[in-house]
Amino acid sequence: MKSYIKLAFAFAFCVLNAQCQSTNDTAKKSGVNKEKSKPNFIVIYTDDHGYSDLSIQGIKNDVKTPNIDNLARNGVRMESGYSTAPQCVPSRGGILTGRFQSRFGLELNGDSLEGFDAETTIADRLKSAGYATGMAGKWHLGPGNQITKHGFDHVFYKNSAQPGVANFNFEGKSIPLAAGTTKMYHLDACSKAATTFIEMHKDKPFFFYLAYRAPHVPLDATQKYLDRFPGKMPERRRQALAMLSAVDDGVGEIMKTLDENNLTDNTVIFIIGDNGAPLKITKEDKPGGGPGWDGSLNDPLNGEKGTLIEGGIRTPFVVYWKDKLVKGTYKHPVSSMDFAATAVELAGLSTDDKLDGVNLIPFLNGEKLGAPHDKLCWRWGGQSAIRKGEWKFLKGDDREYLFNLDEDIEEKNDLLAKHPEIVKELKKELLAWSNGLTPTGFSKGEMSKNANAYFDYYLDGKLNKKIKVGKK
């Protein structure tokens, strides 16, 4: 009898232990599945990339971007996608924090980075949600060896033929952060870093920020890409097209890697330009690839980098999430700051009122109708602007303009005198918004000599005067 009781007890213990183990395994699997259900995020950020220069835009026939076109065709192409500034440093501060950069004092190239250094980046936020975080390419927000302090665990900082700084290699191994990456062409190297990172972290949610230095000067396309664009054209245009072709190849490699690892369905991709192309008014085809026009174009937009005219801030902008968005062109204005707000919500993080962006997914999948933003505002040095619906009010020092962008995308017909009531309201809203900036007000100092020259040429019709602009 005692033997029977011992046997029964042992059997019951085994059953109970098996049930507990099964429960633990189920809990573990549930946790893994919960983590895997979080979408991955990739931001591809191009540099001085004009509005014209995706072939899917249907504006120029010489540009070739089949891989980006495919994402746009099967995702959403933004007709009015905006950067937060017409210049590299502040626009990067905006997209990486999800906040308008003048809120923390980063309005112009050369401004102190102390405010940015104190901000919580989207990499910080996603890292707290269990994401692997990484970046490749251009940083421009401080020393390369400080990037890991801003939420990026994996760094491949390289934007030229110079060595760069990295803490992982193409074999997928983490290494001590140090100078010396690869002699590979920097655009190809950044693409390789992206696919390597994906392979390294395919079993957990990840965020990768891929900031190609293209087609920003110095123009340095390799012969492989230049050969794709034969025929007569400005050499700077050929260089820009070639560099963008290298970027597009990289996008193709990224999609191939996602497909091979069954990650495409659960990866959200944003492709955005940091600001418009620098035309230097005349688009002079200077020999060499140094300062000057970078070969990119902003057509049909007026203006260029260094202005809050549309050509300075409206950029190529594509969002892709396989089979989860209503395919097509989206008309309402959106901002690069919307990426951070989108990622925060999709990652299951608490919403933060400090973020200036909006989760775009409900607007792009048809759940929400109407515009994501009541208005978008900018301030950059002596310039400020507000877009609300079809109306845009632009101010540069004492010069003021009003445009109906639905009817006049080229900003050629100033309606300031015809609609004083609209001007008054927009100006009031712009000033109220500016009270949240550092410093407050319509401007931070006066417009530069170059900015004045751009306003003379693009807005005031001083076409017969020989206008010169500096290198910056």
UniProtKB/TrEMBL annotation:
PROSITE patterns: SULFATASE_2. Residues 1-18 form the signal peptide. The keyword Nucleotide-binding does not apply. GO terms for molecular function: arylsulfatase activity; metal ion binding. It comes from the Bacteria. InterPro entries: Alkaline_phosphatase_core_sf, Sulfatase, Sulfatase_CS, Sulfatase_N. Residues 39-348 form the Sulfatase N-terminal domain. This is Arylsulfatase A-like enzyme. Keywords: Calcium, Hydrolase, Metal-binding, Signal. Gene3D superfamilies: 3.30.1120.10, Alkaline Phosphatase, subunit A. Belongs to the sulfatase family.
